[in-house]
Amino acid sequence: MRRGRKGDRTRESILRVAVDVASVEGLEGLSIGTLAGRLKMSKSGLFAHFGSKTELQLAVVEAARAVFVDQAVRPALAAPRGLPRLWALSEAWLSYVERKVFRGGWAAIRERLRAQATRRAPVLSSRRYRPPSSRRPLSSGSDRPPGSRVES
Q: Domain containing 18 — which CATH number?
């Protein structure tokens, strides 16, 4: 079922506040009730956008990742490959950290996610989330799409 534009905007507003809260208090610090109070909306109204605390947490992790990619990775992709791109990536990351994009800081989110990952194994093993290390790499043979080539 597709949400309307207003529903999408509301969900984005919820996620902005939720990412901010998670940067300070961690994923376990998120609660539907606390977020509803901060956003001045009903718990049932907020719950309707996510369905469960687990889905909210997954959405928060994805939203934080998207902010990081938009602000620290994507700008560097404009640089030529190789050392110039690596340098641009380093500069973009340092700028991202200096700007304190998340109230609790990037380190706070990273450390909380790392600590909570061990306790939240069911969340991270959800069908919606697969860390890159669990993805099966392409072999050198027939399971590559036709016409594709491996860049070195």
A: 1.10.10.60
